[in-house]
What does this fold into?
Amino acid sequence: MVRKKLQFVVSVWMVAGLLNIFTWTPGVAKTVEVFPNIFTIVHEEGVDSNTTFIISKQGVVVVDTGVSPLTARKVMAEIRKRTELPILYIINTHYHGDNTFGNQVFREGNTIIIAHENVRRALKGNAGKEYLEFFKSSKIPGLDEVTLTLPSMVFEKRMEIYAGEYHLQLIHRRGHTNGDLFIQLAELKAVIAGDLIVNGQFPDMRDSFVDEWIEALDYIENQDIEMVIPGHGNVGGKTIIIAMKHYLLNLKSMVGRQIENGASLTQTKKALRPVLREKYKSWGKAERIDGNIERTYMELSLEKDS
Ligand SMILES: [Zn+2]
It folds into this structure.
């Protein structure tokens, strides 16, 4: 019941909740060789997602494509410095613009774009057009060039890809959005997490499902994983998963206590904003705290009512 109601909440937020999320700042990017032939472009500022590319013997797999063709071309240049092999697969970890708007740059003749079915649903038709128009209003450079380029292959729960010598398990869990996937590279004890995990910054929770996000992180934490490639911020070890989970658990219990005490949303924000700011003072994107409280308050109130 709660999950059904939250579907509605998502659609409202898709339109209304986006209005104050972006102040665009140019990102500083660095290319990190996470494993031999697996590289992550880490954007330390700005809105761009991390992009990871895997150079297999057969061709290249690109995970998340940046917020614009402008960014994507820089990533493509990094790929082409290292290989002339074709781009086999593009994987979008979810539908947000910073993960999908660069798709067109990497798509060559037979490239397949893979995502969860809800990603295609979110980007197609009028919803996709409105979503792009919203981004255009946020003064991020290069968005006029974007042609929404949809996933050409979708899945519901799980999918496996054998690209050359690499085996990728794509697993869907709801959390950051309703269309998240993370990629497990079991042989390497690694996970490419999308925005289910961000490192050193408050997450963007405008389309999120707090309880299911915690469940997803529990699942990832219980895998045999040593290397975590987050959606934003530096790569690291298992501590990144734990930090993310603890943040959500803290947020949930603090907001829950406020609701139990009869606090309104405004009172809850006022009470918790400084506490969260202080507790996570090394984290960036503190402007997201209010939105995080709001989303959690909404979810917990619906649970209470049902
Ligand atoms: Zn995202």
In short: Confidence is low (pLDDT under 50) at residues 7-25. The longest strand covers residues 29-35. The chain has one domain: 2-305.
